[in-house]
Amino acid sequence: MHNQLIFHVFDSNFNSYLVLLQSRKVHFSRKTTFQKKQRSTEIKVQPSKMTMMEFFGCTFIAFGPPFGLFVFTIMHDPLRIIVLIASGFFWLLSLLLSSILWFAVVPLREELAFGLVFSVIFQEIFRFFFYKLLRKADEGLQKVNQTEGPELHVAPRDITNKNIMAYVSGFGYGIICGAFSIINVLADMVGPGTIGIHGDSKYFFVATAFLTLCFIFLHIFWGVIFFHALDKKKYYMVALVVATHMLVSCLTLLNQRTVNRAEPLYLASILPAYFVMLAMGVVAFFTAGGSVENIKSAISCCKSSAKYEIE
């Protein structure tokens, strides 16, 4: 995003100066004309410290917590990494079909709601395809574990515990979704440029980062709920996943300016999205076998370990 204001000024010797106002800094590009000689001097614009700080801040907001989850729960296991990458590939396939449909329907290209609705539908369809693929591959994964288990450090519980595979597949969906959602925004965030010159909201970058984080966690929770629902044939939970996915995605339409709305309604989309995220987290927790007793035990263990460290 480059916002520029350009002025022409002349000095007493009729030297022409091009004044470029960009990123709240003034840069001079001199063009001197004397008889048949022409000389130009240009100054390269470097990203300011403010834009770099905003870039790293929004990056850590969006990908900091997911990176921590990846390090502590996935990185040490090669099988989980394979499932993670495969899940992300299926999300890319859904994006490809959504793009083809958007490109084919020319009259509705300018309607964001049209592309958004079908994007959600394709994502959930390919989530189902990936579920079927994992269930078909269970037998093969068990054979790999029996043959190469000690060398590959493939834990049997990764195969037998279907909630782990659901978590990893949802994580892959969320990471690739978050990357495609914010990567172009991060590229513009580096600068040079200052958001807001043309009336844009100064909260655009931060709001995008928080929504990206929300969608990453939502895909993790949706993956756990979706896989469990299909295993237990609880199709109302599948409908819950699709409905909440559609709801949160449609809420992001409030972040655009329209003829009747001069300012984006970031809070109107972020707050409900995080409320849905917390609700889906609770559902996923109990779906995976969690209970109130587990929470109490975890809290008591933390207190006892802290007491031991103090003593």
Explain how this protein is built.
This is APH1. By secondary structure, the protein is an alpha+beta fold. Helix content is 68%, strand content 9%. It has nine helices and four strands, in the order E-E-E-E-H-H-H-H-H-H-H-H-H. It has helices at 49-73, 78-104, 112-152, 156-160, 162-189, 204-232, 235-251, 266-287, 292-310; strands at residues 4-10, 16-22, 25-34, 37-41. The chain has a four-stranded antiparallel β-sheet with strand order 1-2-3-4, with no helix packed on it. The protein is globular and about 60 Å long.
Q: Layout of helices and strands, plus pairs?
A:
Blueprint: E1 4-10, E2 16-22, E3 25-34, E4 37-41, H1 49-73, H2 78-104, H3 112-152, H4 156-160, H5 162-189, H6 204-232, H7 235-251, H8 266-287, H9 292-310
Antiparallel strand pairs: 1-2, 2-3, 3-4
